[in-house]
Amino acid sequence: MDSIGPRLAPLLVLAALLGTLSYAQESATSNPAANSSVKQASSDPDRVVLKVGDVQVTKQEFESRIRDVEPGHAEEGAPDKDRQRLGDDYASVLMLSQQAVAKHLDSSPEVARQLDIARMQVLSDAEFASLMQQAQPSFAEVSQYYAAHASDYDEVQIRRLFIWKQRDNSKSAPVLTSQEARAKAEQIRKAYASGTDVKKLSGDLTKSEHGMLDPNPLTFLRGELSPQMEKVALSLKEGEWSEVEDTPARLLLIQLVKRDRQQLGQVSAHIEKQLQDQKMQTLLNDLKKNAGIWMDEKYFGTAVAPVPDAQRRASNPQSELQKSTKEGDRKNEEQ
Questions:
Q1: Three-class DSSP category at 160
Q2: All structural domains of the chain with their residue ranges
């Protein structure tokens, strides 16, 4: 019971403050001049909003320091409970840091080590940001890259037709020979050409467990398909079909529905990032050469460190055909 008293005191003070604030808001609402004065004071960046001992924190200082931690929660438009929580947390951190300095904890070896690391990290981040700005490509560079690699942004819309010859996951599924599979595929192609609804054909084929037909064409960018399938797709005229694969498990045909190319506006952000990454890597490599970096091979070994954020393949990657098939299935499900 003795602990309830100290806990009630802040609540009573808070209730009084809330009552005062409520009265002030009502007065400001009923008095336009007062309301304007309150708004002006609220927007003043140099207004002191928090004190811890002799240290005063202005509105601008508080919001700029909190913004990186929780963006949008400290500004005027944020809910009061969010700003109050952040203000209480900030005051607690400031209070504890003052106590630490008063006790000379900042001169202890462990704290000094952590402060050095934090300072090094902040400076490193600042230089990295400066280099990223330096590596920002111009619009002319982006346009030049696009003109030189325009074919990389080709895209095709295709419809795939799978005819299953043998299904491991279904004992009742029929086993078809290559000749029977081709006959089945030809039957479906003729029905499609005669105007039969493709969604009906797709549904009937799936129910029969003979295969799968894409009800809607799927769009693939250059490089998303397997090399074999991409080569076939790019060699077709719009509307044409061609066989891509004939294995003991299945027969695969594709139809080129449409061939197109992404415009500069669609891919400029991607090119910009690609060029910026290349420039950044060059800048970092030059800095490393000029910095005279040396590493003890007996301690670190001789393996080359991977490039940060580099795209790395798995040790046992899927085949390109498997990936393109799964990508097509995913797009089918989305549609």
A1: strand
A2: 9-43, 153-263+320-334
Residues 6+ apart with CB under 8 A from 106: 100, 112, 115
Per-residue pLDDT reduced to its tens digit, 71-130: 665 555 666 777 888 899 999 999 999 999 999 999 999 999 999 999 999 999 999 999
Q: Which fold has domain 153-263+320-334?
A: Chitinase A; domain 3 (3.10.50)
d(CA 218, CA 332): 7
- Give CA separation, 19 vs 14, 165, 311, in Å: 9, 79, 58
Q: Is 164 left (phi over 0), alpha (psi -120 to 50) or beta?
A: beta
Cβ neighbours for 209, distance < 8 A, ≥ 6 positions apart: 164, 167, 170, 172, 173, 174
Structure tokens at 99: 């106590």
311 or 168, which is more confident: 168
- Beta carbons of 131 and 211 less than 8 angstroms apart: no
d(CA 205, CA 212): 6
pLDDT exceeds cutoff 50 at 16: no
Other CB atoms within 10 Å distance of the CB of residue 185: 21
* Average pLDDT of span 57-71: 83
For residue 155, the model assigns a pLDDT of 94
For 218-239, how does the pLDDT look when each residue is reduced to its tens digit (9 = 90+)?
A: 999 999 999 999 999 999 999 9
Can you give the pTM of this predicted structure?
0.59
Write out the DSSP string of 270-332. HHHHHHHHHHHHHHHHHHHHHHT----HHHH-SPPPPPTT-----SSPPPHHHHHHHHHHHHH
DSSP 136: P
Buried b (16+ CB within 10 A) or exposed e, 8-28: eeeeeeeeeeeeeeeeeeeeb
> Under a CB-based contact definition with an 8 Å cutoff, are residues 333 and 216 in contact?
no
Distance CA 239, CA 156 (A): 12
